Amino acid sequence: MNRLLALPAVALREKLRAREISARELAQATLARIDAVNPALNAVVARNDAATLKAADEADARIAAGRARPLEGLAITLKDAWEVAGLVSTGGVPELKGFVPDEDAVAVARLRAAGAVIVGKTNVPLLSGDFQSYNAIYGATNNPWDVSTTPGGSSGGAAAAVASGMSAFELGSDIGGSIRWPASACGVFGLKTTWDLVPTYGHVPPTRETRTQAPMQLGVAGPIGRSAADLDLVLSIVAGPLNAAGPAHLKKPRATQAKDLRLALWIDPAAPVDGRVAQAVETAAALLERDGARVDRAARPDFSFREAFETYSLLLNAIMVTAFPQKTRDRIAAGAQDFAPDDMSHRALQARAARMSAQAFEALAQKRRRIRAALADFFTRHDAILTPVTPAPAIKHDHLRDSFARVIETDRGPIPYMDMLHGAAVATLANLPAAVAPVMRSPMPIGVQIIAAEDEDRTAIAIAGMIERANGGFVPPPLVG
Fold first, then answer.
1. Catalytic positions, please?
2. Cα torsion 116, 160, 419, 135: sign
3. pLDDT tens digits for 141-180?
4. Which of 85, 80, 81 is nearest to 112 (CA)?
5. What's the CA gap between 88 and 185, in Å, rounded?
6. Taking residues 66-92, what's their average pLDDT?
7. Phi and psi (nearest 5°) for 475?
8. Would you call 28 exposed, middle or buried from its count of C-beta atoms within 10 A (0-12, 13-18, 19+)?
9. What CA–CA distances, in Å, run from 444 to 120, 262, 282, 388?
10. Hey, what domains does the chain have and what are their CATH numbers?
11. What is the spatial distance between Cα 420 and Cα 415, in angstroms, rounded to a whole number?
């Protein structure tokens, strides 16, 4: 059963349809897996076994009647940022402890309607606002490769569950690398989608009181799985406008073979990374080059990384501080006078964002439009960009209250904790899709980020699949394999 639960979702689906295994057997195996490994990981934080087995029996009846839906019988968990009918849904917020919604989030409803069997919820940081997955309700989640490290955040419980066989796939969310970083840290595949491709209505944040049908700026939903094909399968189900009557039309990938690819490799001096991270990006490039891809290590879009990161960080902080109490916002804004206008420290960027005028915001929006245009032009000559996901492999647990005081240890010395945002900046600022594929796995996994043009999510997925085929695909963590 351990080997079965390490298979990609697409392979499990074939076994279910061929009736080599029943949905009930898969659900029972998944629940047993949670019983066995979750005490060490604390990734799954809520479940309803009776509802799970009932849904699995219904899936078996559909399969037997020849009416299987696209995800029929696949046993999954869902990030606790998503509201799921019948399951405690907290978003990591203590005030929501015990809250059970009576409706699914829109994307969750699509998964359920496609036949997925929802087993439970996975851990997140408070309001999905950290690079580690811990909160006052459920505590901290551990990485299945090394429990002294974090699986990342905010979709850390999700990635840990997928990596350890407690879920066939997951639906994460990402505004600051929250799909990409956990996927890399846990050795699985992830996709930050094109902005507004997948509905986020029913996701916390925003809170229920401030929720609107318009998607949160910069924030997206996307799949986490054990293969690139899993990403494509789940994307085909959840993509589409909020009130869509049917599946979205997704562009075909630009290429299905590496020999047809024109790639850029971008590791920027303004965003220093651990040598192992740089090696992972170079390894991914070498694998694709071996199969015929052309990789340009000097090509850059017509803007600097510093400019993109400053624009992204100011926009992100402007969004995030709106969730703070007014007194906190006022205190942060008042601190802006202590920093020079060109100070790029993370505290300075937060303070500048908190006191941003309407005029400054419009100037920022204009800069963002120019960067997006430069990337659109760049993707007329290149099919994708290979770049780091984060500055380091999985990091040790660090719950120091002041996140600005935390540091990340690298082989080049300590760097600020908030540098974790560097890898998220370009794709998120420009609304672009970015897939993550695992590349290195010893002693800890490290992935590569594949950024593609807007609305070309399947190009990013296809390149992740090429890397997967070149290096052997998903490898289960040794602690739970």
1. 79, 154, 178
2. positive
3. 999 999 999 999 999 999 999 999 999 999 999 999 999 9
4. 85
5. 27
6. 98
7. -120, 125
8. middle
9. 27, 29, 17, 15
10. 2-247 (3.90.1300.10), 305-373 (no CATH)
11. 9
